[in-house]
Automatic annotation (TrEMBL):
It comes from Brassica oleracea var. oleracea. This is Uncharacterized protein. Pfam families: Snf7 (PF03357). One of its GO terms (biological process) is late endosome to vacuole transport via multivesicular body sorting pathway. It is found in: Endosome. Keywords: Endosome. Belongs to the SNF7 family. The lineage of its organism: Eukaryota, Viridiplantae, Streptophyta, Embryophyta, Tracheophyta. InterPro entries: Snf7_fam (IPR005024).
Length: 148
């Protein structure tokens, strides 16, 4: 009805018009309004689809974050299990034993170095002993300080 009223308002005189032409104009106007209605409907659907696409994109980002979090937690679990296994394998007594062996070998090396650094042969007879470099530096600095 509204279409007919608008149509009649825009065309003031229908008296001399052919009824077929009048009917054709009415259907064209109706069709035009229907096309505009469909256009609005399609535009709304396009907007809805765009919103759905944004939501799906947001969900994909959330899923990627959840996947990264899951992978991180799995890696932490694996690391913790590996450390636990290593701690079971390494007994504290074994560590103490190893440290004792290291200290013993260090003492042996010191004894060897002391034996090699002591004078032997003709140098031992004359009392010629080379002073270690650090001791010589200390004596030089004392002499320098005394001169001041």
């Amino acid at each position: 009805m509204e279409v007919i009223l608008n149509f009649t308002a825009s065309h003031h005189s229908f008296d001399g018009m052919n009824p077929h032409v009048l009917l054709k104009l009415f259907f064209e106007a109706t069709q035009h309004h229907y096309i505009l209605y469909l256009k609005r409907l399609y535009e709304q659907q396009v907007e809805q689809l765009g919103n759905f696409q944004l939501r799906i994109h947001d969900q994909m980002i959330m899923l990627e974050g959840a996947k990264a979090t899951t992978e991180t937690v799995d890696a932490l679990r694996t690391g913790a299990a590996t450390m636990k296994a290593m701690q079971r394998a390494a007994n504290i007594d074994d560590v103490d034993k190893t440290m004792d062996e290291i200290n013993e070998q260090t003492d042996n090396m010191k004894q060897i170095q002391d034996a090699l650094s002591s004078p032997f042969g003709s140098a031992a007879d004359f009392g010629i002993v080379k002073k270690p470099l650090s001791l010589k530096k200390q004596q030089d600095t004392r002499c320098f300080d005394e001169r001041r």
